[in-house]
Design brief:
single chain; alpha+beta; globular
């Protein structure tokens, strides 16, 4: 296990934050049936065979020569193009060369999204949960207990059935319990599953992912309750720093909890016409 980061002034914070985000996506390459996760000294990428769930997660080229960079980009793109799937490519603070985005654009890739990286020190966080009658949170310890994820993912995020199933299959194949880096939680309101979130313990920090609440259970403080539950679990497991990437809609919620932005990842994409 990586050494735990203890405060937000650590020089390793941004790299750890980026690695936690990277690992969340790399899990698809590890967990989905038939998927491939490839890592060498320059690139980390995954291929799932799905139309839109493939990409390069880390780029640290040993040379900054344009001819070399362009050749590696062409080779990598050709792998995915030959399999007739879309390709994503993430550019972050530790990407090398620093101007890789310019090279990707020259090869026809376009920026399609950004991931803001937020972090919070647990010793300064308010961990007191809101009081919500008849609401409880349970840790998921097996595949059966994770089943509500699919419905909540679709209704809470508007995800497709395929996307929700990809998450479910990935988490199930990675496994449950203390020997894994993942923890999953389901929130129950009047004995009905209404919310989900996951915690990824990686690179010396804890990442919160997939906080979702079904529409009819919103505006009750359940999203905040799920987030604070994950924060308390991370603290109980010995972690000091928690990170996440909010949507535009949820950004203010996390800022009120004390999260601050420390970096941004850009996402590029190439799709066959």
């Amino acid at each position: 296990m990586s050494e735990l980061l203890r405060d937000l002034t650590s020089p390793a914070l941004i790299a750890a934050l980026e690695e936690n985000f990277t690992e969340e996506m790399a899990c698809f390459g590890r967990g989905l049936p038939g998927a491939i996760l490839h890592e060498d000294d320059e690139l980390l990428w995954f291929y799932t065979g799905r139309r839109h769930l493939n990409g390069v997660l880390r780029s640290r080229f040993r040379s900054e020569e344009k001819v070399y960079i362009d050749r590696r980009i062409r080779e990598t793109m050709a792998y995915f193009q030959g399999r007739h799937v879309a390709l994503g490519w993430t550019v972050g603070p530790t990407t090398r060369p620093a101007d890789l985005a310019t090279h990707l654009e020259a090869h026809g890739m376009k920026q399609v999204a950004e991931t803001p990286g937020l972090a919070l020190a647990l010793n300064a966080a308010d961990l007191e949960p809101p009081d919500i009658p008849a609401f409880e949170i349970k840790e998921v310890l097996d595949e059966q207990a994770l089943l509500p994820l699919c419905d909540i993912e679709m209704r809470g995020f508007g995800s497709s059935e395929e996307t929700a199933r990809n998450y479910y299959d990935t988490y199930c194949n990675i496994g449950f319990g203390p020997e894994t880096g993942w923890r999953h939680y389901v929130g129950w309101l009047y004995n009905t599953p209404v919310a989900i979130t996951s915690l990824l313990l990686y690179a010396g920090i804890a990442g919160i992912y997939g906080v979702a609440t079904v529409p009819e259970a919103r505006r009750l403080g359940i999203g905040t309750a799920m987030t604070k539950w994950a924060l308390r679990q991370a603290k109980a497991l010995g972690y000091h720093i928690v990170v996440l990437s909010p949507s535009d809609m949820s950004l203010r919620i996390y800022e009120r909890l004390g999260f601050q932005r420390y970096c941004t990842l850009q996402h590029y994409a190439w799709t066959q016409s």
